[in-house]
Amino acid sequence: MALRSSLAVTVVALCLCASAIVRSEDRQSSAYRFLTACDVTPVRASTRFGSPVIAILGVGAVGSFRPVDENRGCEPGWYERSSGGFVCGKHLARAAGSTPMVAPKDDPQKIEGLLSFLVPRFGPRLFESAAMAKDGNAMLRLRRGSVVRAAGPAFRSHGRQFVRNRAGFYVEAEHLELLSSAEKSLGFVIGPSTPPPFGVVTGTKVKVRSSPDIGAAEIESLPRWSWIASRSLPPEPEATAAPGWVSLPGGGYVEQGQLSVFREPAHPSSLGPQERWIAIDLQEQLAVAYEGAIPVRIMPCSTGKAGNTPKGEYRIELKKRVHTMRLLMGQVRVEDVPWVMFFDRKQALAVHTSYWHDDFGVPRSHGCVNLPEHDAKWVYEWTLPLPAVEDSETLAVPGALTSRVVIF
């Protein structure tokens, strides 16, 4: 249903563009009006084609614009966006609605109902169309670890099983595995009356014992993702041959190896009092959002399983509401990942949703920082650069600092 709806809105947008491109008479008023993007549209920092792109609007996006007295090679002239930046009028058409909206194909809400299929081993072929699938003319073979998202279950065609993704590609489905839904929200919100927790239970059915000994009597078991609100050990206990223990507020002890423990990182230099930034703790697999020196949200995460999430201080360079991850010449393909924040575009490293696993608290990724979907959405909307509602992609404004990502 989401796929069909997205295609319908895109077709409507294209029809609008064919019949309702902004004309000279539309520029008589200097008031803001709602216009729609009729193709993939760059939003620029100024009314020059060579100026930096600060956002991308997808087909069918709706935003608020007004004409400006600048032409500079753009017909029918430039438009200023109420949420910042400038767009050449050739990309815009009159909008049917009066509410800002992102392009349907880039709206994470439109893909919530999609099914997710894991490629467990090398081999399934991906075809660009039904005709190519019939002829056996594949674009590529998918490697183990790829994830395909489809609007419906597998179907039979030309004597084989396929699933069809949002782009209309056909993927051989004989050996695909249907994935169950992952945890969507695990974050702990810290407020004035809510101090940071000791940590979160990442093991399954963690045993609470009467004394700090593996042979002690079991009092109860804690469910996975329980937050422990107090601690009896220092924030960074010394490593020992045997696991450490945590004394729980209501009595009893838990092995520390079953927890992700909150640790304060070294704060960045010249930190502003309200500066928004994210700390990623590789040892404990926790992501912590800070406002100045104050933590405001703690979230279990997953980083590179091969230790390939590099330590350092970065800044968010690009945000994409929905993005298909590609590795190894596209043969590892993870489709329609929501809430993606690139902090190192050269190495394709980002903070983003993981909908295909919920092994948060354990290194699992190819190098990116995985978060539950609702936590990733919160980080996306909270960090700088702040995305406009209609942005499919948001880039840094030249000269403006974006949120730091500190990996330690």
Could you please describe the fold and organization of this structure?
Helix content is 9%, strand content 35%. The protein contains three helices and 33 strands. The chain has helices at 2-20, 130-135, 373-382; strands spanning 33-37, 41-44, 53-57, 62-67, 78-81, 86-88, 92-94, 115-118, 125-127, 140-141, 147-150, 155-157, 160-164, 170-172, 177-178, 188-189, 199-201, 206-209, 218-222, 227-228, 245-247, 253-255, 259-261, 276-281, 286-291, 294-300, 312-315, 318-327, 332-344, 349-353, 369-371, 393-395, 404-407. A hairpin with a 4-residue loop joins strand 24 (276-281) and strand 25. It is globular and about 80 Å long.
Major sheet attributes: 7 strands, mixed
Helical fraction equals under 10%
Q: Average pLDDT across residues?
A: 90
Distance between the termini: 43 Å
CATH superfamily membership of the largest domain: L,D-transpeptidase catalytic domain-like
What is the number of E strands? 33
Rg, nearest Å: 24 Å
Query: Looking at CATH, which topology of the largest domain would you report?
Result: L,D-transpeptidase catalytic domain-like
Total tally of structural domains: 4
The name of the CATH architecture of the largest domain is Beta Barrel
Overall shape: it is: globular
Low-confidence stretches: 1-16, 232-242
Estimate the strand proportion. 25-35%
The strand line-up of the biggest sheet is 2-3-32-28-29-30-31
Number of helices: 3
Question: What attributes characterize this protein structure?
Answer:
408 residues; mainly beta; SH3 type barrels; seven-stranded mixed sheet; 3 helices
